[in-house]
Amino acid sequence: MQAIIKNTRYTDAQNTLAELSAAFNAASVEESRLLGLLAAPADIADPLAAGLRLLRGEPVQRTDTTGINRELAQVRERLDTLRPAIDAQRGVVAGLVAELSAAVCAEALPSHTKTVQGVADALEGLRAAMAAEAAVRAGIEAAGYRCDLVPVAEPELNFADSESAASRLLRDLTRRLEVERLRTAGPVNARLLVDVAGMGSAGDVVRTDGATASHLLALGHGEATQAKPSKAPRTVAATELVLS
């Protein structure tokens, strides 16, 4: 996978942001310099020169506040122009990152789904192995013997407990895989777990497209089922769903 910093659109956008930021920083430095001049006493920059002018009978030079204020106004105008430009360019960069990230994630989705399936399969294998281990000990006890075998016991890996870490993870992965499967599936039957405007009430079984069923499942508001539809509502796109 190519790093985002090697994408020319991204680097161009970042370079533009860097240029705008550099110009803003330079203007800020200039603003500070001019404000310092306005705040300084007359001839503070060269007190010796001011003293020698007095000895020669020449008038003391005063700071040209009019000219400095004019320059300051120009600098502040640059700052006022650059500040929103930087914010806008940051938005461009953020939007570009979102666009490029979405494309990369979409491309990686099939392989990621495969790895998620691998994790789910591993958890199923662990559940079966732990059940087999428990069965060995139970068989010894059932035959009338005292079992001295050390059990494999870890509360968070107890699949008999629906709220253990292992059970919750397996349940979540199973749901995620089903969401992805339904997303590209054809028409399916779905049982509504909540009232859905335009579709039905909680408990209704409806016939709908895979994308809508996937959306309902992802929200926890529906589930795929083999039961026959109890009603046939109009087709509603996933983006149109109004959930109660």
Describe the overall structure:
The chain folds into two domains: 107 residues; 89 residues, no CATH class. The radius of gyration is 36 Å and the shape is elongated. It starts with 7 loop residues before the first helix and ends with a strand. The relative contact order is 0.07. The strands form two sheets. It has a three-stranded antiparallel sheet with strand order 3-1-4, covered by helices on one side. Strands 2-5 form a two-stranded antiparallel ribbon. The protein is mostly helical and 244 residues long. Helices cover 61% and strands 7% of the residues.
Task: Give the gist of this structure.
By secondary structure, the protein is mostly helical. It has helices at 8-39, 47-55, 65-142, 165-183, 210-219; strands spanning 188-192, 196-197, 205-208, 222-224, 242-243.
- On the 0 to 100 scale, the average pLDDT is 88
The side-by-side strand order for the widest beta sheet comes to 3-1-4
Strand content: 5-15%
Main sheet summary: 3 strands, antiparallel
Order of helices and strands: HHHHEEEHEE
What distance lies between the first and last C-alpha atoms, to the nearest angstrom? 42 Å
| Tally of individual helices | 5
The count of domains is 2
Percent helix among the residues?
55-70%
Overall 3D shape: elongated
Using DSSP, what is the number of strands? 5
Helix/strand structural class: mainly alpha
